[in-house]
Amino acid sequence: MDAADHLPSRAQFVLFGALGDLAWRLVVPALFNLHLDGRLPQDFRLVGVDRGITPERLTERLRDGVHRFSRRGEPTADQWQGFASKLSAVMMDLRDREAYATLVDALDDRGSGDTTRVHYLAIPPGLFDAVADGLAGAGLNADERRTRIVVEKPLGHDLDSFRAIDASLRRHFAECQIYRMDHFLGKETVQNILALRFANPIFEPIWNRRYIDHVTVTVAEQIGVGHRAGYYETAGALRDMVQNHLIQLMCLVAMEPPVAYDADDIRNKKLDVLRACRRIRTEDVPAYAVRGQYADGWIEGARVTAYRDEPGIAPDSEVETYAAVKLLVDNWRWQDVPFYLRTGKRMTAAASEISIRFRDIPHNAFPANTGIDSQPVRLVIQIQPQEGIILKFMAKEPGSPLRLRPVDMRFAYGEAFGRQSPAAYETLLHDLLEGDATLFMRSDQVQAAWELLMPIIDAWQANPAADFPNYAAGSWGPEAAEHLLAHDGRTWLAPSQWHPGRVPATPHDGD
Ligand code: BG6
After folding, report:
1. Which regions of the chain carry the CATH code 3.30.360.10?
2. Residues 6 or more apart whose Cβ sits within 8 Å of residue 486
3. Mean of the pLDDT values across residues 92-112?
4. Could you tell which of 155, 181, 184 is best to mutate to test the pocket of ligand 1, judged by most ligand atoms within 8 Å of the CB?
5. How many angstroms from the chain centroid is the CA of residue 324?
6. Any idea which architecture 3-181 has in CATH?
C-alpha cells in the first residue's frame, strides 16, 4: 500500500516562527519536497505565523530557504508557484492571548471539521508555554485525533526544565497529540537499524553479550558552532547531541524486538533500554564521561578558529563541544557490554556511525605469522555522510603462503536503491501528517534520557573544566576520551569510509 494512502485529505500546517531559522532551513524545504513528490494531503495549507509577517515577506523568505536548502536545489517557477499558492500569513505576537482569536478567524475559513491541524512550534522553548496556553484558550487544541502540536529540542536544559516544558504542553494537549522531534530518527539509515535487526533472522541470535564485545556510537561533525552561539552556549554537546540523537541511536541498537511495528511498542522497548542503563554516581562521572572544547586547528587544509574565539562565544566559555560517555545496560542481553557514545564539533571528518564490535575468536588455529593487521569482526552501520552497512571480517589472501587480512562486505544505499534518500524532515513531517508517532519521542523517553545524564550535568557544572580548550580542531577529540576506552582495554576506531583518502588516517586505525 502506498504510504500516501494514510494521509488525511485536508490539512492545515500552522507554522509558528515561520520567518525563523528552523522553518527556513529545514521545515519548509522538507514540506516543499513532499509537495513535489505528491506526498502532501490533497488540500494542504501552510499558515505562517510570526511577528511582522506579511504574505510577501513569508513567500520571499520561504522561497529563499527552499532555494538554498532543498535537496533538489532551486525550484522551477512552476514548482514554486504550485507550493506558494498554499501559503498564507498571520501576523501576531505569540505572547498576546487575544491574538489567538485572529488565528482562529484565519483558520476557520475551512468551514469543515475534518481538517487535520498541525501546530508546529519552530520557536524558542521559552515560548512553548505561551503558545500552548494561547491555543487552548482559543479552543485550538480540541479534537485529539486531528489536532497535533510539534516541538523540537532543546526540550529543557536539565530534568527540571524538561518537566516544566512538558507540563506546559500536557496541560492542554494529550500525549498522543504531542510530537517531539528528534530528526535523527527520520534518517533512512537510522530507521534501517530496525530492519537490519528484525527483518533478518541472522543478526538477532548473535546480538548479545555472548558475541558482542562493545558498541561505539560516533557522531562526528566538521562544522563548528556556526551562527548558533546564543543557543550553544546554553547547551553544549551533551545536551545538544547525546541527550537526544546519540541516546536514540543506542536505544535502537540495544532494544528488545518489538511485537509489532507500532509507535507504542517500539517506544516502550526503547524506554526499557533507558530504564536498564546503570545510573552513574556523580562521584564516578570522570570514569564514565569526558568533555572537550576545540582549540584552533586545521580542517581539510583550512585554518579554523577556537571555540572561544567564535563570534558570540564567551572568551572563557566552559561549554563543551565534545562529549564521550560510557553507558552500561543492566539486563540479560547486555550485561558487561559497554556502549561508548561520542560526539564533537570540528572533528577530523564528518562521519556518523555505529560500530558493533564482536568478540575475539576463542582460539587462533592459524600459525602466528598468518594474520597481518588482524582485526576483530565488526558490523558498521554508517549513518552519514555515507549511508550503508559494512561487515568487516578476516579473509584469506589469494595464493600462498597463508595470509589473512581484514576485508569489507558492503551494502551502500545509493548503489542498492539507486535513488536519493528523502531528508529526515520529509519522513518525519509525512509521518506527522499521517498521525504516526513511531519516530517521535514520547515524554517518558525524554525524561529517562535526562535522568540518565543528570549526574554528568551536575558533576560538570560543579567542576568547571580546567583544561579547556583540550582538543585541536581537526582532531578526533581530547586525549581523555582515548583513556576512557583504554582503561577498558579498548580503543575508538576511525569511522570507516569506503572512499579511501576522504578521511585522513588517524592513530585510531586498527584495533
Ligand atoms: C542538531 C544539533 O540537532 O543536529 C546540531 O543541534 C547538529 O548541533 C545537528 O549539528 C546535526 O544534525 P545533522 O542531521 O546535520 O547531522
Report:
1. 185-358+418-429+437-486
2. none
3. 84
4. 184
5. 16
6. 3-Layer(aba) Sandwich (3.40)
Taking residues 17-25, what's their average pLDDT? Answer: 96
Beta strands, E only, 153-284: 178-181, 212-220
Q: How far apart are CA 21 and CA 227, in angstroms?
A: 10
Could you tell me the three cell numbers for 480? 581523555
Closest C-alpha to ligand 1, atom 9: 241
Taking the C-alpha atoms of residue 210 and residue 204, their distance in angstroms, rounded to an integer, is 12
Rg of the chain in Å (alpha carbons)? 24
pLDDT tens-digit readout, 195-236: 999 999 999 999 999 999 999 999 999 999 998 999 999 999
**Phi-psi region at 94: left, alpha or beta (left = phi > 0; alpha = psi -120 to 50):** alpha
CB atoms within 10 A of CB 371: 16
Domain with CATH 3.40.50.720 in the chain: 3-181
Closest CA to 388 of 410, 419, 420, 421: 410
| 43 CA distance to ligand 1 middle (Å) | 32
CB atoms within 10 A of CB 3: 12
The residue-averaged pLDDT of 473-480 equals 97
Ligand 1: residues with CB < 6 A are 183, 221, 240
Cα of 385 from ligand 1 centre, angstroms: 13
E-only strand ranges, 293-375: 294-299, 302-304, 322-327, 339-344, 351-358
Residue 253 has pLDDT above 60, yes or no: yes
CA of 245 to the centre of ligand 1 (A): 9
Atom 4 of ligand 1: nearest residue by CA position: 241
Cβ contact 451:262 at 8 Å: no
Q: What is the largest CA-CA distance in the chain?
A: 84
Q: Which atom of ligand 1 is nearest to the CA of 232?
A: 8
Please state, in angstroms and rounded to a whole number, the distance separating the CA atoms of residues 256 and 356.
Answer: 16
List the catalytic residues. Answer: 245
Q: Which fold has domain 185-358+418-429+437-486?
A: Dihydrodipicolinate Reductase; domain 2 (3.30.360)
CA atoms of 454 and 451, how far apart (whole Å): 5
CA distance 129 to 149: 12
**DSSP single-letter state for residue 441:** B
pLDDT at 427: 96
pLDDT single digits (tens) 108-156: 755 456 899 999 999 999 999 999 999 999 999 998 999 999 999 889 9
